[in-house]
Each structure stands twice: as structure tokens, then as C-alpha cells.
Design brief:
alpha/beta, 12 strands, 5-stranded mixed β-sheet, Nucleotidyltransferase, domain 5, homodimer, 10 helices
Chain lengths: 314, 314
């Protein structure tokens, strides 16, 4: 008899990761592709769905449900991608759920990627046992997901768009000085480039292109310009996170995504310090600031979690 | 036979209002006193409880439950006032619920004042029928209450403490540039005084003390300095409210408190305009920005709502 497998698809601006897992969430096989603006979403998804079916077969099983995390904003009810600033234009208005349902005939659940990742960390990661938590992913963009009273808040809220610098950079969303516009991987790289153009000495002058990863490496090597960019990053992150804590007073703030994973204690140490200054009204010792336990796979586990719970209940 | 009445007590930094009502929330009698730092909370509350009993008797009834809204932070579980920056020090650590329970022998429910007001507007005011809303009271301080999925979120979150000006004024909470530190009635007056000290011509030079109310009156008369202070107020409010909308994506943002009520369209018109610039990721046409329908009595109705629901269920 074939095993019943679930599939998770974590769509991102940089890559799209997929996995086949048991209903418990235990992953049997993984695969990923780079997000390519030149390839239409139908082609990308079509290829990935075939791959998932083959992965299930190779493990002597068949797929029964598919969970998908996708950058917001999206129309969750209709499973429709709206106009996510961090996805290629070809994805805008793509009827994601309808397409996958028609192709597979399976149960398909689509959720904002950061919401899915919050659920992943809540069920399998750093958020286990916490009633109220906020998950922030710091990668190409910054997304946020909220768990309240052990349940995912299915709203279109986007915590990455709290204002951290009122007259700051124009954000992909159209507003100014959003957390995402100042502290996402892309934005850290942009601020570093501004510092470099202003003419400071730095090892980063010989790096092309300058990425958040390159900035973090230069910080580790003690590069002064990179350290200044990083201090500013921590300060801006602390402003944004303190606003989120003020509104929600969660038990835990979990930071995931490539930038958080890459920086590690270089991020968490100074951030906790800076938050002591910025968070006063809510007792900060009641809020833990921790790395995502699933690393860069919070979103993938979250995509699985969208249907694993459902699969478990059926 | 005596009627069963409920009582509501709305404690604030400026005044304390009480009411006696039917279980439905219909108010039969009101009373209020000015908050006086020199009078200990036991004396104030003792006097008000006697007054409430007499008001109930005068309407041929007796009290069965008391709902109390009080400025946060407070320990809701224990009904204990903690250290609210907008209340006299004499109230800090006051065991509010225990005191009222012992004095009356009745059911007593204590809640953060802005939470209570959010509930009041949700049940009786501008928020009727809305599933998800945020209530902000702009008065001595700025408090916020959240209704999610028709239920009051009983958290210690304080939406008035989102950061709107990272290097701004020191807030009562200890942090910098909180919404409350820039846009509360007290803070509007402080900013106006700073403008006056900087030497601009203004009718406000002859007003002592300069209050938010005086600033609003001067704006109506076209005073240029007051208009500059007001434009800044709107901008800072829009920054804070846009961050709250980003996190929560509510259906409705209800603004109450003395400043909102006093300013009316002088506030709402330009604020809606400014929010169009600042709120992009969440479709702003899905979020209404409206005045509290209960005016300055949202909190009083909210205090009643804390026990009216309960009374209704018993």
C-alpha cells in the first residue's frame, strides 16, 4: 500500500523550495529551484508539481494534500497572488491555488509565507509551547506572522511594514521607511552601497555585488564601514521590533530568514541590548528574542504545517 | 423587587467617571470626579463606591457587578495596578480589584482602560459588526485596545507605544519617540510650547497653560504656529497608526479620547489623507478611520461592557 504523503511549497523571491513529508511533518525528500523572473509561474509550478509527484513515488507513496507559502499580499480566501513587491511581476495576479488544484485534484492550502513560517516554528521549531508569538523573516524582504492563543492569525497584516524611519527609503510597497525598506537583505546591501558611494574606506569596495551576506562577513573581519552599516541595521530593527512588541506583547519574537541565520549572534546579541532601550512599556524579560530553530526551512515546514494539521484531523 | 444594576468605573489620569446601568448597558445615572494626586486611591474608590450604591438605590435597584477600566500597565489576572505613567504615583501597586471586592462583596472585573473602551465601542459604538478593530484613545496619554475575531485581546500590548520618531521625546514609559510621547494631549501641548519658545508669532503666547484644546482652538482660528504643530501631529499620528495597521490589518481604526473628540474633522480629514501616503501594503480602502461613536464615554461604556456580557450570561 502506498504511503499518504503531504507536500510543502515555500515560494520566495530568491528560491522556491519543496518537500514531501509524512502527515507528521517528517520530511522524506527536498528540492529547490532559483526564482527566475523570465519563467512564467505556470511553468515553474508545473515543473515542481511533477517533481513532487516523482519524489512521492520514489518513496513509495502518493500525495494527498499540498500546503503553499507565498509572499504577500495575497487573497488567501481565493488563493490568489496579488502584487508582492518581492516576487517577479509575472507572478502578480497568478491564481496559485486554482492552478495547483486543477493540476493535481488535491486539497491545496495557500497562506502568506511569513504566516506559514510562523506556524512552522510554532509547531516544529523555536515557538513550541508558546501561546503568543511573532515570527519575522529577514531575507529578500521582511515578512511577519502572528500566533495568538496557539492559533495562526490569518490576517493580511504585514509586520515588515511598520515604519522605522519616517523619512527613510521608498519601500517596495510604496510607503517610506518601512522595516523592510531599511533592514531586509536587499536594503542592508543598499545602505552599504550608499556608505561606499559616500567614500569610506572598506574591504567592500572590492566586492561585487555587495550583498547583506558580504556586509556580515566584513563585520566579522572588523571592517569599520560594514560595522557602521550593521550598527544602523540593529538600531532600525530594534525600532521596528519594539513597535511590534508594543502592539502585540508576544511571549516570543522569532527571527528567521537568510539574514538572521547568516548573522547569528552578531544580530541577536546587540539587538537584545538595543531592545532594552526601546521596549519599556512591556516588560522585556517576558519577551524572548530567539533565532528560528528551523533555520531557513521555517517556511518549508510551515507550508507542510498548513496541511499536516488538516491531514492529521481528517 | 429591586432591579439588578451593574456599575462601570472608568479611571483616567484627568478624571474618574462612574455609571449605574441595566444589564443591557442602558445607563441610569452618571457621576465623575477629578483625579487628584493628593487623595489616596482607597479614599477615592471608597467615596465612588458609596456614590454608586446611592445611585442604584435612587433608581430602586441594587448593584450586582462592577466593571473597571484603568490605565495600564496592570496585572489583569490579579486586578493590580502596576505603574501607569499617566496616573499619580499613589495609584501604583494599588490592589484595585481586591479592594473593590472586599468593600462590596460583588463580582469585579478589571481591565486596561483602552481595552475596555475598545470593547465599549465594539458592543455599543462605532465598532458594532466589525470582526477586527483597533481602538485608540488620544487624551492625557494614548492607549490602544484590540478586538480580534469579535473578542477582546486581553494582552498587555500598548499600541500607544509604537515608535513614531526614533530620536524623539522621552516617553513616560522610558523609551523614546513613542506615539504617546508625541501625540497625546500632553505631548501636543509640549510640542506647541517648544514652538512658542523657539519664538514664532502666535495667539498661543497669551494662553496659560497651553493645552491641546487651546492648540486646536488656535488651529480653527488659522493661527500659523498652531497649524504647524497640528500638521506635525497629524504626520506623527499617521506614522503610528500606519504601523499598527501594518501589524494588524484591522477593518476599522476607531479614535476616541478628548483630543479626537475636540478636533473632529480637523483630525480625521487630514489624517485619512496622510494615511494614504503611509499605508500601502494593506489596502487602505479596506480600513475605515472613524471617530468613537460614544465620544468621551467609550471607556465608561467599556467598563460596563466588562460585566454586562457576564451579567447577560449568568
Amino acid at each position: 500500500m502506498a504511503h499518504d504523503f503531504i507536500a510543502g511549497i515555500d515560494i520566495g523571491g530568491t528560491k522556491i523550495a519543496v518537500a514531501v513529508a509524512a502527515a507528521s511533518g517528517e520530511i522524506f525528500a527536498r528540492y529547490s529551484v532559483v526564482t527566475d523572473a523570465a519563467i512564467p509561474p505556470e511553468t515553474v509550478m508545473g515543473g515542481l508539481l511533477e517533481k513532487l509527484e516523482r519524489m512521492a513515488e520514489a518513496n513509495e507513496g502518493r500525495l494527498v494534500a499540498i500546503g503553499i507559502g507565498c509572499p504577500g499580499p495575497l487573497d488567501r480566501e481565493r488563493g490568489l497572488v496579488l502584487a508582492p513587491p518581492n516576487m517577479p511581476r509575472s507572478w502578480w495576479q497568478f491564481p496559485l491555488r486554482a492552478y495547483v488544484e486543477e493540476r493535481t485534484g488535491l486539497t491545496v492550502v495557500v497562506e502568506n509565507d511569513a504566516n506559514a513560517a510562523a506556524l512552522g516554528e510554532h509547531l516544529y521549531g523555536a515557538g513550541r509551547g508558546h501561546k503568543d508569538l511573532v515570527y519575522l523573516t529577514i531575507s529578500t524582504g521582511i515578512g511577519g506572522g502572528i500566533i495568538a492563543d496557539h492559533r495562526l492569525v490569518h490576517r493580511v497584516g504585514e509586520a515588515g511594514h511598520v515604519t522605522v524611519r519616517p523619512e527613510g527609503a521608498r519601500c517596495g510597497c510604496g510607503a517610506r521607511g518601512c522595516l523592510e525598506a531599511e533592514c531586509s537583505g536587499t536594503s542592508i546591501a543598499r545602505r552599504a552601497q550608499e556608505y561606499l558611494l559616500a567614500g569610506g574606506a572598506s574591504s567592500l569596495h572590492s566586492v561585487h555585488p555587495v550583498t547583506a551576506r558580504a556586509v556580515i562577513e566584513a563585520v566579522r573581519e572588523g571592517d569599520e564601514l560594514a560595522c557602521a552599516v550593521w550598527r544602523e541595521t540593529i538600531e532600525l530593527l530594534a525600532i521596528g521590533i519594539s513597535s511590534i512588541i508594543a502592539v502585540l506583547a508576544p511571549e516570543s519574537v522569532i527571527l528567521g530568514g537568510g539574514v538572521s541565520a547568516g548573522a547569528g549572534e552578531l544580530l541577536f546579541g546587540p539587538l537584545r541590548q538595543e531592545l532594552k532601550e526601546r521596549v519599556r512599556i512591556v516588560p522585556l524579560n517576558s519577551v524572548e528574542i530567539v533565532p528560528a530553530a528551523l533555520g531557513t526551512e521555517s517556511g518549508l515546514y510551515g507550508a507542510l504545517a498548513l496541511v499536516s494539521q488538516r491531514a492529521g484531523k481528517d
